[in-house]
Amino acid sequence: MSDTLDVVDFGSRLQFTFGDLRLYSGPRSIGGLAHSFRVMQRVFPLLSPDGPPERREIRVRTAHPGPGVRDGIEFVTRAVVEDRFRHDPQFARIDGGDRMAWWVFEFAYRDRIVTAHAREEFVPEDLMRFALLGRKAAADERGRFLAEIEKMSKLVLAARPDEIYDIVEATGL
């Protein structure tokens, strides 16, 4: 597997590495950024089996509110600025409790829709608790949160996309 994401934009093929996404987003939300990279690698071949999808035709819905996920998807697809990205808290997963609630992604492209769920082993147990504390957290809690995010990004980037995400629904395939 190539460790890139390919899309087509106005007839030109664009290829992105995780490093490209990181330069765009910065270091703070590296865990969500890693997930955005791998989930797109997982679903793009299903959405467009004959080659890279047209970036400006991809629509996304997720329960994940984090900037890393949003930044990675925006950088590759331009879906945020072009109003094809929807953060939908009601789309949250009901399996896996609070820990897994945000880790659902729906990508639509032309007549195809693919929904993917992250597997538990790729989302640290305490991550949601730290995320909900946010700015109210004490400095040591923020430090542990950042360490968990870094650990998650390394785990996600070391795995293949099909090891991280289950396809739970696919239409038009």
Short structural summary:
The protein is α+β, with helices and mostly antiparallel strands and 173 residues long.
Mind explaining what this structure looks like?
The protein is of the alpha+beta class and 173 residues long. It is 42% helix and 22% strand. The chain has 7 helices and 7 strands, in the order E-E-H-H-E-H-E-H-E-E-H-H-H-E. The strands form 2 sheets. The chain has a 5-stranded mixed β-sheet with strand order 4-3-5-6-7. A two-stranded antiparallel ribbon has the order 1-2. A hairpin with a 2-residue loop joins strand 5 and strand 6. The longest helix has 20 residues, at 139-158. The two termini are 21 Å apart. The mean pLDDT is 90.
Topology:
Layout lengths: L4 E5 L2 E5 L1 H8 L4 H18 L10 E5 L4 H11 L7 E3 L9 H4 L3 E6 L2 E7 L8 H7 L5 H20 L2 H4 E7 L2
Parallel strand pairs: 3-4
Antiparallel strand pairs: 1-2, 3-5, 5-6, 6-7
Helix pairs in contact: 1-2, 1-3, 2-3, 2-6
